[in-house]
Design a protein that fits this description.
The structure is a homodimer of 405-residue chains. By secondary structure, chain A is α/β, with parallel strands linked by helices. Chain A has one domain: Rossmann fold. Chain A is 39% helix and 19% strand. In chain A, helix 1 links the parallel strand 1 and strand 2. In chain A, helix 1 packs across helix 9, helix 4 packs parallel to helix 6 and helix 8 packs across helix 12. The longest helix of chain A is centred in the first third of the chain and has 25 residues. The radius of gyration of chain A is 21 Å and the shape is globular. Chains A and B meet through helix 6, strand 6, strand 7 and helix 7 of A and helix 6, strand 6, strand 7 and helix 7 of B.
Chain lengths: 405, 405
């Protein structure tokens, strides 16, 4: 199958490219390398030493004999080139990772809010419009997030995409199925909620075949394919903007920094290992909707945990201390989260358990590359509002952790 | 009150400026004049002879002694200038009309789809981000559309913005109030559905005070203020893209063209007179939500009609014939529509009835300016998909109506 992987140079994109190339698919990476530019902007780098995309593709060819095609293209700003690219390459499937994916980055300043909306809505809409215009009947798989729903569930399991509601009419109650209502908690999450509306429209009006994967927080670094050569290693972010909660705990443990829990740590989140993430994409690819069908939505996660429980787990494995800091985000202090993922389990997903995989992350990644860690980049500094920023800044515990400048 | 009217040169924007200026408010029109540029692109013009915005402002000053300030600014593409404008002018209220507002135009080609999304999402998000960044606590009133809900109601009245749903949980059913689910039927309507998500987020995260007016199809031309001088006249669109259904029937009647009903004409739509529209905005302005409140949503319409019934009504007033043509849109052939508008009625709206006001439109506008009508621009040509475009194009009745080229 000829597969376009949009954002194929990123954290989940790259291992997806290798996974699907290894299965024999013809892989075309389309990426504007914005994530590398953001590293430069923030003055951070992947913990794991990461080569250029061209070099990574060369190594993969050397190791496996398989070709990864790389195309430098800005999906969000170059619509005419996007359309031309699709007309020329006519992929059978399109996997769309090409969005700015960090909630804290999206809340940094007004410029970052504007960039995130322009980039994410632009990329998604341009791909949709180009598919319709070129008449390409490709299966579009999009990486969404569990976070579109916000985290104030009513205590019912979050279903996969749709909700049955009963509406009172003069003729009695009528059942209707609606998109599960979203309540995004950051500009980043909001863009994924906007994407849903775009998908609903283009599936309905133009019969586009779309699968939207509502992913949990991805943890872990290696997949079977990234392990095949040191230069195929995946990126690992630990900074306050792009490092997700578990990766940041691992790094903090490795350098003897306290594990920084925001607020009470009562936030419950959904998680999935990177190896399961690429496997889910493989499963979704094999299960394409038909034209005219509604958007297929999967919850792509395998377990849920409270943040403070994760901190305790990593503390137990590593001997690190836990520090409670004020929360720079505007969110519920404590929430429950029950998520259905029956669809992927039915398709054969056999999840990697966090308890089992965590130790190898500590040893193989965090400790191995600990000498590359810049301690000053570990704190999360993006606050959701200016008032929160000031409150967080005044906190004595936070000030004690600040590196001398 | 100092009021910024974004898109104040447009069809509803302009009479709103005059109405609120007449009430003594300090009006600042912010507009990039894109609607005039689109006239040029399409080779159409307002039926009513329309002066430049600068000249209109000068006449208003002459007639009333009141000043309308005009600022040429592209809200969708010049974020930094938008922020600067707000910082400098610090309005008490912002009324936001600055979106591409024609469904057929938004479906014309892929370029028009991309333009509509970029322009509408860009303008709305830039205004929201700028209000947060500058810390201005202005009441933001946005013109949305009834069309976000699609037109396949389950037979229940469309409530004002929110829906009570009951969700089954292990602990029994739990009541929750959600944004009334949207199902937009064109790219234009889709952008208004995206706006809703933007508003929900910024009201929740930043306490912005927002009112979203879900407007029906506006009919009529004159308001008390536009009548005060011939050069204050409002624009009147009759072309296949920007002319709304009732205005197009009036024009067709005036030039002896058949009243073109698409499909069975069983589509039921909501309507409101332009004078009531500006009055509703005045009422919404006086009823601002508090910071921290959810977005206040009004259905801004006064009556509903089936398209074929409207055609019969105009035919009866004018002696015109009715022609049934294939529908270029993808939509339900027949639908019911029951809409709640209790909130505006409670605030004192006293609606102008279509049956009463229609004749003056035929005489004062359509017949008066009939000599300016370009018959070739009357047919609706934008189709929702390429397949529909071909089917519409082959229709013999449609071909018979086509002007010799």
């Amino acid at each position: 199958m000829k597969i376009a992987i949009l954002g194929g140079d990123g954290f989940v994109g790259w291992p997806t490219c290798l996974h699907l190339s290894n299965l024999g698919h013809d892989i075309h990476i389309v990426d504007n390398l914005s994530r590398r530019w953001i590293d430069t902007e923030l003055g951070v780098q992947s913990l794991t030493p990461m080569d250029s995309i061209q070099e990574r593709c060369r190594i993969w060819k050397e190791v496996t004999g398989r070709t990864l095609h790389f195309h430098l293209l800005n999906l969000a700003t170059e619509y005419e080139r996007v359309k031309q690219w699709f007309a020329e390459h006519r992929p059978d499937a399109v996997i769309h990772f090409a969005e700015q994916r960090a909630a804290p980055y999206s809340m940094k300043t007004d410029r970052h809010k504007v960039y995130t909306v322009d980039n994410n809505v632009g990329a998604t809409h341009h791909v949709l419009a180009a598919l319709v215009e070129t008449g390409i009947d490709a299966h579009l798989i999009h990486l969404g997030t569990m976070g579109v729903y916000g985290y104030s569930s009513v205590g019912a399991p979050i279903p996969e995409g749709y909700l049955d509601v009963s509406i009172d009419t003069p003729a009695g109650p009528r059942e209707q199925q609606i998109l599960y209502p979203t309540r995004p908690g950051s500009v980043y999450h909001m863009t994924k909620s906007l994407d849903q509306i775009l998908f609903q429209f283009y599936a309905q009006n133009d019969g586009l075949r779309i699968t939207d994967l509502h992913q949990g927080i991805v943890w872990g670094t290696h997949t079977d394919q990234t392990r095949r050569h040191p230069q195929l290693v995946n990126r690992f972010d630990y900074d306050g903007d792009y490092g997700t909660v578990l990766n940041r705990f691992l790094i903090q443990a490795a350098i003897g920094y306290p594990l920084t829990v925001h607020g009470t740590g009562g936030q419950t989140r959904a998680f999935i290992h990177i190896q399961d993430s690429v496997r889910c994409i493989e499963l979704a690819l094999a299960d394409a909707p038909k034209s005219g069908e509604r958007v297929r939505i999967f919850n792509q996660m395998t377990e849920t945990h409270r943040v403070r429980d994760l901190a305790q787990l990593v503390a137990r494995l590593s001997g690190a201390k836990v520090a409670f800091l004020p929360n720079p985000r505007k969110e519920a202090e404590e929430n429950d989260l029950i998520v259905r993922n029956d669809q992927f389990l039915a398709l054969g997903l056999n999840p990697i358990r966090l308890e089992e995989g965590l130790l190898s992350e500590v040893v193989d990644v965090a400790k191995k590359f600990a000498h590359r860690i810049d301690r000053s980049r570990v704190p999360a500094v993006s606050a959701w509002t200016k008032e929160i920023a000031e409150r967080v800044d005044r906190d004595p515990e936070r000030q004690a952790l600040r590196p001398a400048s």
